[in-house]
Amino acid sequence: MESIIDTAKLELTKKDFESDQMVKWCPGCGDHAILKSVENVFPELGIAKEDFVVVSGIGCSSRFPYYMNTYGIHGIHGRAAALATGIKIANPKLSVWMITGDGDSMAIGGNHFIHVARRNPDINILLFNNKIYGLTKGQYSPTTPKGSKTKTSPQGSFEQPFNPGELVMGARGKFFARVVDTNIKMMTQVFSEAAKHKGASIVEILANCVIFNNKIHGLITSRETKVDNQLFLEAGKPMRFGKDNEKGIILNGSHLEVVTIGENGITEDDLLVHNPEREDSGIHIMLANMMPPEFPAALGVIRSVAAPTVEELIWDSIEHEKEVSPYKCVDDLLNSGSTWSVD
Fold first, then answer.
1. If we measure between CA atoms, which residue out of 159, 139, 68, 88 comes closest to residue 310?
2. Is residue 197 part of a domain?
3. Within 13 Å, how many C-alpha atoms sit on residue 32's CB side?
4. Is residue 235 part of a domain?
5. Residue 106 belongs to what domain range?
6. Rounded alpha-carbon distances, angstroms, from residue 95 to 62, 238, 260, 322
7. Burial, 49: exposed, middle or buried (Cβ in 10 Å; 0-12, 13-18, 19+)?
8. How many CA atoms does the CB half-sphere of 131 hold within 13 Å?
9. Most buried residue among 151, 193, 232, 277 by CB atoms closer than 10 A?
10. What are 251's strand-pairing partners?
11. What sign has the CA pseudo-torsion 41, 47, 50, 55?
């Protein structure tokens, strides 16, 4: 029997999505702010509460399904992308949110991660990047900076780290954004834009692990240095940043360069104007690679390109086969060709 209440027309609030479970992240962990931002976004999307599904793998971030009052799956290490993709294909009307970390998706889940970006299911992926394994107590991860001393790299890590944005775009991903966990307003805005994008929306969150990798994003997030190290990108607007908005980014030949407006004849007209819908990912990859101290970190929606989703293509294929197939049911198949009876 169907419910007589159309829940899609209910006025949902943040309170509707708050779980009754105790949130067991460390005091000061950036994950608390991320949770609050997601709780801000869900009631604004115009989606019935029962149509949300939160999926995770393993790690501190992956406790998220317990802390949201929605349907959810706490999956196994690195496999959240496979679960989220399957859910979306099986029931395309659902709003599917995949919560993962740099260790969960960049290491054991690396193969699943690149293919979810390539296949482009309409799911929202929040990648908590604290550049360490926090849940297992401080081992270096695939995004840990080279030379970092951790419990598993006492002499400093020898490995080159992944840049999540570069990896997403190298896998032909269509949407990539980056935010900081110290700015709930920014996260809420970008998560909302990710939700509205049709396709795999991947948002890297520069998250702080206060216990095992404290202030790893300090140049970008600290009060003293953030104005010179954050560039919030807005479609159609020139790339400006700095305390007085006096700095900008230009394209000098084939590379990006930081300039000061008013010096050497530079004006706002010389600055690069952000176009997240650019099909060619070249400039988007350069933006994803910008990091202090040479550049400010590029924040906001870096890339947002329209493309068919995998669930649309699969269901279109199913409908096509239904139309052209001579078999309309199992009986048709069983009675096709040569048949015989057994007495």
1. 88
2. yes
3. 10
4. no
5. 9-216+308-320
6. 18, 33, 43, 27
7. middle
8. 24
9. 232
10. 256
11. negative
Q: Is 9 exposed, middle or buried (0-12, 13-18, 19+ CB in 10 A)?
A: exposed
Distance CA 201, CA 40 (A): 18
Domain count of the fold of the chain? 1
Give CA separation, 79 vs 38, 57, 125, 140, 228, in Å: 22, 6, 13, 20, 38
- 267 touches 261 (CB < 8 A): yes
Tell me the one-letter amino acid at 121. Answer: P
The Cα 98–Cα 75 span in angstroms is 10
The two tokens of residue 140 are: 């270096």
Report, in this order, helix, strand and coil percent for the chain, each rounded to 5.
Answer: 35, 20, 45
Residue 312 inside a domain? The answer is yes
Calpha distance 225→175 (Å, rounded): 28
Classify residue 292: in a domain, yes or no: no
Q: Identify the residue whose tokens are 């997030």.
A: 221
Q: Which pair of structure tokens corresponds to residue 283?
A: 């400039």
In 10 A of CB 120, how many CB atoms?
24
State residue 6's pLDDT score.
57
DSSP state at residue 131: S
In this structure, are residues 298 and 284 in contact, taking their beta carbons and an 8 Å threshold? no
Taking Cα atoms as reference points, which of 117, 81, 119, 122 lies closest to residue 99? Answer: 81
Question: Could you give the C-alpha distances from 40 to 26, 97, 232, 306, in angstroms and in order?
Answer: 21, 14, 20, 26
**Cα 167 to Cα 284: distance, rounded to the nearest angstrom:** 12
**Residue 122, token pair as written in the block:** 């309409």
Per-residue model confidence as pLDDT tens digits over 103-130: 999 999 999 999 999 999 999 999 999 9
Rounded distance between C-alpha atoms, residue 6 and residue 147, angstroms: 56
Residue pLDDT, tens place only, 195-251: 999 999 999 999 999 999 999 999 999 999 999 999 999 999 999 999 999 999 999
- State residue 4's pLDDT score: 47
Q: Tokens 């360069």 identify what position?
A: 257
